[in-house]
Design a protein that fits this description.
The chain is α+β, with helices and mostly antiparallel strands and about 475 residues long. Helix content is about 25%, strand content about 30%. The longest helix has 15 residues, at about 185-200.
Amino acid sequence: MIQRLALPAAMTALAAAGSLLAGCATAQPAADPHTAAIDALVANAQSSAPYPGLAVSVRRGDTLIYEAAYGEADLEQHAAATPDTVFQIGSITKSFTALLVAQLAAVGRIDIEAPISTYLPDYSGPARDVPVRYLMNHTAGLVNYTSLPDFPQGSQRTVTRDVMRDYFEDADLMFEPGTAFSYSNSGTYTLGLIIEAVTGETYDVALAERVLEPLGLDRTYYAGYEPVIEGRAEGYVAGENGFRNAPQLDPLVPFSAGALLSTVQDIQDYIDQVHRRNVFGDAVRDMLYEQVELGDDTLAYALGALVIRDWEGHRKIAHAGDIDGFAAYMSYYPDDDLSIVVMGSTRDVAPTPVGLEQKIARIVFDQPRPAPSMAPLADSEIAAIAGNYDASYMRIGIDRIGILPREGGLAFRIGGVDAQGPAIPLLHLDGRTFLAAHDDEMVFSFAPDAGTPEDLTVDWLGGGIPFVRAAGE
């Protein structure tokens, strides 16, 4: 599922949970001049973030240049993590679901321009006439069921598809479909229901027959907590007294939006076959990569549940995953033929898998982050930038960010200047660009370059998220 965006919790976890002293299990990658630097980075991230277990794989073309795991897959049994450890991958599942939809569309089983009700005649909500394609790139306007105040977070109770539909189906749409982006597990859940209706099979069976088995992904599973899966990692929550076991969910809670488990090796094979070698053909891959215009720009989130963007001058195709006790990230740089997969057995720590992946990419591309400026900001600049900034046409779980003065510089607070929670310092990089002190891959850019800024772009979770200055400020 999507990251729950709990930055204050990240800070708490960093301060509260002590370092883990654990060994490294490493595959045998080819010699590469970057391997030692990547290994030092991963080892430091596992111990300082901290992650109970962390696995990373880096591949260029057909060559594996780094693959290793640090820490423990099971803290109670002291089972070491390995590159073959099975982690929950959360919202990376969405790319598998989109691939299924694209395959069915390519053979005429699904028309993505057709309304939801074409395939779910009993769909009673206001989105019944919304085209299927809007579910694929989160522009349908559906509320996100995991963000609803009455959604039972962390519940282990058994649910049904109808119980889950009741959380979102009849809710008012957040906006006119096609006019904005709001990340919604509800949309991808609905895609799973459509897949079942079209194929006459349960989602897991359809996935196995059309994706997992053809690709030979025998360490990727649709499963809840009941099945015994060899090498499965336990998920953990960092707290004041160390780690606790994370909640375990019935698989019909995340379903087609986040129920898969996998290994770094299997996800590398998935990237290789679907993206690098295009085994399903152009019709499928072209649909996965299709982007639309939204606002004044191209929406980075493509139909294939993939964020496609330029990152530091490199074309990048990626998606993050985050679910109770786990966080993951996969990326592919097609022009550089580089793929990186990161999986960890906790979340709300920094560097996140997204941040760690970007640090690894910087090593491989020999593009280190410039050092922040230590010079204090002028009082006039602090006053000009400070204030509240509201989500624009693209929402990913945060409606407002507050920017406030702090000791000759600036800090940010999720929810606004007057919200609860800590103010996290911003480090001045240059001009009106700043880095978050807890994660230097979280970048704040204000525009214009002079006067009162009206726009804020936060490069976070693998994409640029636009905000605008709150009305009246």
